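Our consortium's second objective concerns turning raw sequence data into structural hypotheses that experimental partners can test. To show how far this objective has progressed, the report includes one record in full. It was chosen at random from the queue rather than selected for favorable results. The single chain below, 234 residues long, was entered without modification.
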Amino acid sequence: MNPANFVTGVVIALKGRITTNGLFEVKDYTYPGVPSIESMPQIDQSDYKQGENLSLFENLENREFVAFISGLEFGNMKEKLAIEIMAKFFNGQYGTKEERFLNSRVLRLIIAGNSIGDEKDIDMVIKGSYRTQDLNEKVYNNLSNSIEMFEDFLVGVSQACEVDVIPGENDISGAFFPQQPLNVALFPKLLENENIIMSTNPHKFELKGIKFLGTSGQNIKDMSRFQDMNGKTE
């Protein structure tokens, strides 16, 4: 058994015996397996050739979508224009007639973490910097501006569909799983907005009979630090 194929938290059953030296000698092992999962409803593709996938824009009037985005990093936006265009798209203000109709078929938007940019000097402020008050004011002003920009983005996209906001590694939430929702007190414009759902990480919801369960990715990132499977599945 290669230890690099395992991470803390993996359940495994070992079969073997205790040797005279008090060690456990493994003869065999097994995993609990994956629980059975209900099949997703199938799209009727009777009008399409066998093996041909339904394209994004085909048969839109009979289809509905869930959109996922992450890594917006307000306050540290390298792709500010792209984010502005994305906000317009979700509001039906960007794209061709066909693309705007696609937007109208999006029932829910999942924002999966790292919505606030990582303020580079925040650690010094938390630890109690020996520097002047100017550093504290700079950091907190930048953070406040980032939160306000993210809030305005949420106000805009929530006019088109329901929005679930999941905290990520850089967001203002606890560092341990499960992360608690972002404090709604940080977003006063959203207090009366029923289309915004501040969610935990991991997050689970059900829509149209389909169950969704996911995280913003820290668990996968941590697993990759302690294993060396290199894409193997055995």
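The partners drew two points from this record. The chain has one domain: 62-226. Residues 62-226 form a domain with the Purple Acid Phosphatase; chain A, domain 2 fold (CATH 3.60.21.50). Both points have been shared with the crystallography group to help prioritize constructs.
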